[in-house]
Amino acid sequence: MRSEDGGKPDAAVVRDALGVGVAVGLSGFAFGVTSAGSGLTLLQTCALSLLVFTGASQFALVGALAGGGNPFTAAAGAFFLGVRNAFYGLRLSQLLALPRAVRPFAAQWVIDETTAVALAQPTRRSVRIGFTVTGLTLYVLWNLTTLLGALGADAIGDTDAWGLDAAGPAVFLALLAPMIKTTMERVVAGLAVVLGLGLLPVLPAGVPVLVAALAAPAVLWAEGRRRARIGPDEDDDTVGEER
Amino acid sequence: MNIWIAIGLTAVGCYAVKLIGLLIPAGLLERPLVQRLAALLPVALLAALTAQQTFADGHVLVLDAKAAGLAAAGVALLLRAPFLLVVAAAVLVTAGVRAMTG
Prior knowledge:
Chain A is mostly helical. Helix content of chain A is 70%, strand content 0%. Chain A has 13 helices and no strands. Chain A has helices at 10-26, 28-37, 42-52, 55-66, 71-82, 84-96, 103-106, 112-119, 124-156, 167-176, 183-198, 207-213, 215-230. In chain A, helix 2 crosses helix 3 (42-52). Chain A is globular, with a radius of gyration of 20 Å. In chain B, a hairpin with a 2-residue loop joins strand 1 and strand 2. Chain B has a two-stranded antiparallel sheet with strand order 1-2. By secondary structure, chain B is mainly alpha-helical. At the A-B interface, helix 1, helix 3, helix 4, helix 5 and helix 6 of A face helix 1, helix 2, strand 2, helix 3 and helix 4 of B.
């Protein structure tokens, strides 16, 4: 079962991918409940999970609609949150090296979780297995549990009382943890948190996260300046990429 | 009808950005700076999302049971717990703190 190029065994990749796919897939339940509680119909709730399939955007959209936002601002906020998937796609297209004809089909699965699993893999074979298994499990389960959540929303009552609203951030934290190994990655994460929280009270929904994304180019730029100043020969610091 | 408009716009927009990422020519990505940026952007976005979903209620910053839940998730991660257990820890601790504090 070991892949031919000496990477990690296929079974281990599948196990990791299933772990993420199942855990996050089950959290579609929280979305179904939240969406139905925000006044969306069963069909609307399920359409979101089938067609949008990027959790943060879905939560943002139903939140904005419930708060009385007009459809265009609500969609804009959700869209801004979805823009990060373009950057994931940039990275994944290198790692997956998919034929062009397959890309439109793979695109719907380009989300936080599939990216995180794929990025953690050492070889192209395991990247592809990780992406596909995570994408398939997550898509099927997310849609099934969305349906169940929407159907059961009335029976559950207050989802917050069950702590279900903590599932989202815990998922993001678990995805983030393996990505922050170097000083530079930690600085980027820290700056993004400050920007994301600091701008939240003053900017429209969805925009602070996009501004927080600027932490990445900002830190890269500052690092470039620092290296230029001290000169490349004296710089034996290990800040930077490990992958 | 308004809700369907919002759903349609979001679905088209979100699919389009996913596809754009995959379709951008590889040549553009061979530059080291672009590669490092593409690796660091998810870090920034996930960090900001984690913080917002934990400490934000609309446009207001709050400190509630979710913070305790997230701390529990952090401890579970440090102990190298599996993914599902990390999420379960956050949910259970959050629900527990809410049950105790009313």
